[in-house]
Each structure stands twice: as C-alpha cells, then as structure tokens.
Amino acid sequence: MITLWGRNNSSNVKKVRWTLEELELPYEHILAGGAYGLNREAEYLAMNPNGLVPLLQDDETDLVLWESNAIVRYLVAQYGQGRLWNDSPARRAQGEKWMDWALGTLAPKHGILLVGLVRTPADKRDTAAIEAGINACEDLFALLDDALAKQPWLSGEEFGPGDIAVAPFVYNLYNIGLSWTPRPHLESWYQRLTQRPAFIETVMIPVT
C-alpha cells in the first residue's frame, strides 16, 4: 500500500498526487502540514526530519521517501513502464531537467506572488517585491514558451515528469488574478493539461 502525507494545496504535494493518479495507483492520502498539522509530531519527524510535505511510504518496496521530485522520479521508475517512464536516459534527462528548474528557478518567484497576493492582506503587501516577482515570472514564461515552441511537452514528444513538475506552479500563477503577456505555446500546453483527468482532479483546485 502507498501512503501519501501532505495537504492538497501544496504545489509539491500536487505533483505527487498527480503522478499517482496518472499511474492509476491506489493510495491512502493523509492530510498533513499547514492547518492539518501532524508534520511536527515525533512520528512524522522520524520519517522526515525536515518536517515538510510531501512524504511517501510504499509498503511494496519498504520505502519512506521525502522531496517531491525524488518521489515523482521513484514512482515513474517503479510503476511507470509503458506510461510516464522513458527508456532513453538522454531523453529522460532532457525532460527531468525541468523538474530541477521548477524547484530551483520557478518556485521561488512563484512563492513571492503566492504569498504576496494570496496569503498577505492587501494593506500589508510589498508592492515592490510583487512587481519584481511579476517581471521575473514573465521572463520565465517566455523561456517556457520558447521551449514549447520546439516540442509539445516539456518532457519531449510525450507528456512526462517534467510537465508534472512545472504545471502546478503555472496553474497557480494563472489563477491569482494577474494578466500575463500572451504566450501561445505555453497556453496551448496549459490547455492540453486541463483536459487530463488527473490534472483536473489534483491541480485544478482553489489557490490558497
């Protein structure tokens, strides 16, 4: 049995839930983190000393794993043959680079806007930081648009982990009341994602 710990509105938890749903894997979902707590309790810290979500337990392989990208990579390698797994190391790496880019480059700028516009009262917002965040995300959207002009998915010719890693952040940025410069290739990619049942189920929820 697979058990996932984490709150639904976490972008990093969304990635894992989305992967599980794409692979049609049965799992138990324990709400943890944020208002749900549990992630600072001794039982949880024994499994993840960082006290963060998501956390995955897989009884089949006796695995306890934290860090969202590591979890997605594991699930795809263990259960994704013929689906999300790519047998070519070179093509797999080209897709997976977007996983690291999402956390190292996109997520911090996304966080500025999520916290600044969604989780901060209007009278306490740092408008300069928000404006800088918007400009930074415009540049990152241009980069994504350029990449998607060359191939249909960030993972290459087929949907894969690179798309799963980036899309939750793009979804949030598209749904926090901002107007973005039109990017036809990025928007086409996004619209195709919105037709995937697993994306609808796990990512397309209110941004909080």
Automatic annotation (TrEMBL):
Residues 1-83 form the GST N-terminal domain. Residues 88-208 form the GST C-terminal domain. It comes from Phytobacter massiliensis. It catalyses: RX + glutathione = an S-substituted glutathione + a halide anion + H(+). Its EC number is 2.5.1.18. CDD domains: GST_N_2. The gene is gstB_1. This is Glutathione S-transferase GstB. Belongs to the GST superfamily. Keywords: Transferase.
